[in-house]
Amino acid sequence: MDEPPLLSRLSFESVLTRRYVVASYWLVVLFALPLWWSTTSIDRLSLPASRVHAQQRRNVIFPVHIHVNSTAISDVAPFIQEVQQRLKADTYTLQSSGIDARVSDRRLDSSAYDVVLSRGSRDPTVQDRRLFFDIYPEEDGLSWMTSVMRLTDTVTQLLAPYSTYSASTVRELRVMKYSPRYRLAFTLLNEDAASGNAAMSWNIKESISSETYFSILDRLSVLHNFTVESQVQFHAPLAFDPRTLRVNGTEEHGLTQEDLTVFINSAEWTLSSSVSNDPVIHFVLFVPSSSHSPLHILDYDGLRSRSNAFMLPQWGGIVLLDKSSSSHLTASDLDPAFTIFRYQLSTLLGLPDFRFACSRTKRASSQIGSSMRYCADAHWKTWRGVQKRWRASWAHAAASSSVAVALRHSSRALSLSSRAFFNPGMLALLYFPAEHKYAVYTPLFASIAAPLVAAVVREVLAWRRSRKQRRAEKIADARPVEPERRKVD
């Protein structure tokens, strides 16, 4: 029986063909490696850290002019001088916030803050950019110095609220998350229209279009796009019974502070539509039923509060309407409620009343610098498709041609950065980091690379053996053949 031929000597295979096959596999791997690397690698985004660091090293100073208008003091110059010296000596609050306060009895520009002094003992009140402050009527030096100290403390608290107010954190928790679009949902809510004490309709369109409320919407149009919707509900029962009170022989009802936290009955009340995913700010005008009227808000001591409105953080505001005089609420009837709604909207959007904006600007600059240092130190990596949006957000944030333009650019920058963060391409950073890549590709490439490397090693060894064999054959062929000697007997 004939033996099978050796595999290396098959008629359809040669050494050169086998080596071409092995080389073709490696050529495919080498040419495909750059494509694989470019499609699976995550490029690091180059942020303008040097520009931000350069701006951070600069001391931001905000000049503030305070105009003192006084008819209560004959010689106001010493009073102003003493207040100025005390403001300059306050290095912890004002200077750390970057505020350079200048007090004088002359109005230098239209952006100055007004302080109106008068004789009396009333508490300081604020109206727009004007502070009404009463100094003690006594003319002695102690009362004069006490008034100076009180005015200095009041001005300091108003100019740098985040350095002096411990309630700043609570105030920030009320503010809704920024969004370029908001829906304002106005609801006239009757607890029980069948009880007789109900408002069946309201002139909501005229109230929103009035100067009291529309002015704030017009000013905020630079930052937000508002969509207004309204509705009237005739049956919205409370999930609890208000507390019954006896005041001067009259039965009244009150809401405790615990009741306010569960006032909104989300299970039975439909306060907004679901036509879009935009954040909703609710404004509810609640008309209690005749069995719960009049309805008041109680303070922590259980006493009747002077306010008939309250807010729910990051949700909206509620105003209680004790008793409806008619079934239709006119614009004049709604004016007190919409004045409160205007204040609640300002609070929910984080707008200051008499607060000086430089403290927020200072803090924003510090937060940007901290973010940049964190990004640079942590070696953040981003998907290539996100780079344009990141760069666009920083470019928009760098604009400073005017306040209105800066607000528009900052709004655009925040939207772009949020869109970039939630980009689908960013999922690779969260769920597929470099360590996971090695764990996934190592078993795949190991099983492919093992036979390829073994084939190369085998061919190299075979080539070295054949080369050594050919060299030995050449040496043997080149050696001269000696003639055979015969042995003579």
UniProtKB/TrEMBL annotation:
The keyword Magnesium does not apply. It comes from the Eukaryota. Pfam families: PIG-S. Keywords: Endoplasmic reticulum, Glycoprotein, GPI-anchor biosynthesis, Membrane, Transmembrane, Transmembrane helix. One of its GO terms (cellular component) is GPI-anchor transamidase complex. It is found in: Endoplasmic reticulum membrane. Its main location: endoplasmic reticulum. Pathway: Glycolipid biosynthesis; glycosylphosphatidylinositol-anchor biosynthesis. It is a multi-pass membrane protein. InterPro entries: PtdIno-glycan_biosynth_class_S. This is GPI transamidase component PIG-S. It comes from Grifola frondosa. The lineage of its organism: Eukaryota, Fungi, Dikarya, Basidiomycota, Agaricomycotina.
